[in-house]
Amino acid sequence: MPMTATTLADEAIREDICAFLGDFTAETTPFSATKIEHFPDVLRPGTTVYVTFLPGTDYADTVSVCKRLKGENMRPVPHIAARSVPNKAFLEENLTKLKDEADIDEVLIIGGAVDRPVGDFSDSMQIMETGLLDKYGIRKIGVAGHPEGSPDITDEGIMQALAWKNAFAERTGAEMYMVTQFCFEAEPIIAWDKAIQADGNKLPIRIGVPGLATIKTLLNYAKACGVGQSMNFLKRQARNVTKLMTVSTPDQQIVELARYQAENPDCGVSGVHMYPLGGLKKTAKWTYAVTDGNFDMNGKGNGFKVNIDL
Question: 0.85 exceeded by the pTM?
């Protein structure tokens, strides 16, 4: 049977989607990690897994999960939340442990959602300026991206920080990139990428995408994390109370972002970070089905459905 224009277009976007999600990263909290008996049962070998450092928790738990992930053939990347780091000595002590116990060569530095810093650091830039990352051979550094702004910093402050981080990468040779907060629609992400590209951003961007969860769960996370306008996408669905417990999938968002990346090879979007808001197992299973091409496009070509039971 000859290929039609429609089938050719479907095949092209399928390939773009698989490529877009192909090297997706995941994350876990130390508490969530206790619910997973064996990470290789959930994630494939070599998967990059970010390990959170939440306000009020013990950093020893983050170190312990990184050590476990390394032993289970994953690639752990610990969070360093600047406002929860008391001093330079604490930072160096834990970098030593991360290096010795988990052979860490990459970190994600965030400001951290704390109203008042617990010690000497108030932003990620101050952590980078200590010189300790270079001392411990950490050359790959992730920083936060905010497509819809942040409740913790002004838009002007975000742009100034991004300019500083670009300059830091240039003068130090550090391999820097951004991981964004999750959004629920592609449009604000695309507009933001175009804006910061025009402003001179050179850091690759890993887009935060919400994993599989009920609409109610996603709304709760969105409110807690200060997600912006794209939250209206969820609110529209939540008007129908019967849909609150419906599991939402990010297929439409991924189609639009994959198409944007494919049509704009010089854009800043480099990959996807899946936030497992409804649990890592379900999100990983769905994402692997997509990367393996085990899905069918819908009739409009703007979404898809995986061919597995979740």
Answer: yes
